[in-house]
Amino acid sequence: MEYTFPVTRTTHPKPRPEDETKLGFAKYFTDHMFVMDYDVGQGWHDGRVVPHEPFLIEPACAVLHYAQEMFEGMKAYRTADGRILLFRPDKNIERMKNTNERMCIPELPGDLFLSAVKAVIKEDMDWVPSAPGTALYIRPFIFGNEVSFSVLPAQHYTFMIILSPVGSYYASNDGGLSTSRIYVSDNYIRAARGGTGYAKVGGNYGNAMRASADAMKANCKDVLWLDAAENKYVEEIGTSNAFFRISDEVITAPLTDGTILPGITRRSVIELLKSWGEKVSERKLSIDEITEASKNGTLQEVFASGTAAVISPIGCLHYKGVDYPVADQKVGPVAQKLYDNLYGMQTGALPDVMGWTYQLF
Ligand code: COI
Fold it and tell me: What is the residue range of 137's domain?
């Protein structure tokens, strides 16, 4: 079912970013946003599209203290013939359902979610960029919006969607792919069994900032997390999932312990590689196996995958004060092929052989 919502258009449209090749990530926000409320006994109600502007929040609002919230990340792409496409929105809906269940946030029906995304993008369609490597980033989020210091699920929630025209999260200077240095954290952990690692919640990222600060000090762009139990197996990168190509096997951490975010790009990478006949494994991979592969020349590629990160090649891992180069530290062929095919399908430049795109307009 498709829902419709009342729209209040802004009276102060913002100037568009001047140069689409220098959008950065979430530096600009569009003119409108979506807002909807939930009350126990009433369900989701009063969905509306309104101008994107700051809103009032009570300082005693529970989310500011106990972080009962979730978010999603999606992108809308402009095709050369002017259509607007989403990428596998059914997978965002599936993940949102799992996150909400974990966080005691009420379920938001998939068709209501998708209608809301459509309604707000309809108002800001001309903000969807078309320069190579760009997209309109969609950030849906829900928070417990209740004045309470009880450590209990809220009775009232707010669902919002905001939009930002973006380039890649790990921008290179020329808009193409380039490699990054990544810091392997051996003293902090991201997620343990039974925790919220598989859910898309702000707390997972707030918890990461101490290690991110260490990564910046070591001149690295982000953190590669090790498992909480043994500090031995690679898990994921701060913003994204991680893939390692060693002796022609592409390896990523399995989802089975519930400590890995089930990335939609992660899943698409696995499915694409399989369709190309590559050897792909979802298995535990120790940091020692990786450093050894770097030393003996079998570490062919490392790359991150994510909605924001797209496919981001990694040229060097920094672990316990030592640099472990990845092959010749240049963008690897598998990462490049994945990027070209994914972004090509997402923007309609290549045929959608996997049936992953969803035409919004
Ligand atoms: C995304 O890729 O959509 C994310 O939510 C990652 C975020 C930390 C930038």
Answer: 20-166
